[in-house]
Amino acid sequence: MISQGKIRSRIFTLLLSAAALGAAMASAATAHAQNAGGSSLAVSASSNSVAVLPDDPSVAISYTAYDPGTPAITRQQVRQERTASLHMKYIPPGWKVLPLAPHDKVLLGFKDLYNPYTVGTIVISAGYSHLTNGQPNYGTNGGAFAQRFGAAFLRDSTQGLFTDAVFAPLLHEDPRYYVEGSDYSFVHRSLYAITRPVITRSDSGRPRLNAALLLGYAGSSALTYAYYPSINRNMKDTVATFGGGVGGAALGFFVTEFTSGIMQKIHPAAK
Q1: What is the CA radius of gyration of the chain?
Q2: CB of 269 within 8 A of CB of 261?
Q3: Is the torsion defined by CA of 124, 126, 127, 131 positive or negative?
Q4: 3, 50, 98, 255: which sits with the fewest CB atoms below 10 Å from its CB?
């Protein structure tokens, strides 16, 4: 029969062996992690730029990765390190973006309805129509302006919702506007902005016809039959509404292109 002393001795020996084995395994794991870290640093050193979606669908852009230990880093590089929120409609130049899922586009469409820029464009549209006594022809008195404002709100709201929340998810298009910024000439930026109602990018970043916007504005124009005065419920006025909407979108993109700093404050981005 084995004595209790021998049992204790064997248990103690097993414990020492297990401890030694654990120490050996920990040492091996540490060495492996250090080797992996060195490889990672080597890879990082070999590539100091990360590709982002281009500001212009036809131009590829990269930004320099931010390193707090780099004394010569510029303000432009720090700015380019930022990442735009998923629900940010207007993207400043150089900012990284994340791909939009269909539900992100729906939320983007609803969120874009209620911001100072959208409300301001509705007021301007209603005011211009009221001053020129244009369509919808409600008249020129005080009550007519309220009707014009309501009609402009319905028209602009349905344009945005149909474009961003309905057709952009269905057609796999990116409904965001990518500001080119001061790296480009005034003429280039102007042409880029006013053509965005017709040219956009797909979810993969390739240029394509902006079918989502064109179909969205067409659907919104057709809906005016439900609330415009009877005098304006005809094909001629509906086509004029569609054309005015597309032209207004081009003007809006032009303004956004050259006031990106203001839009950035209206739509704060997540870092």
Answers
A1: 30
A2: no
A3: positive
A4: 3
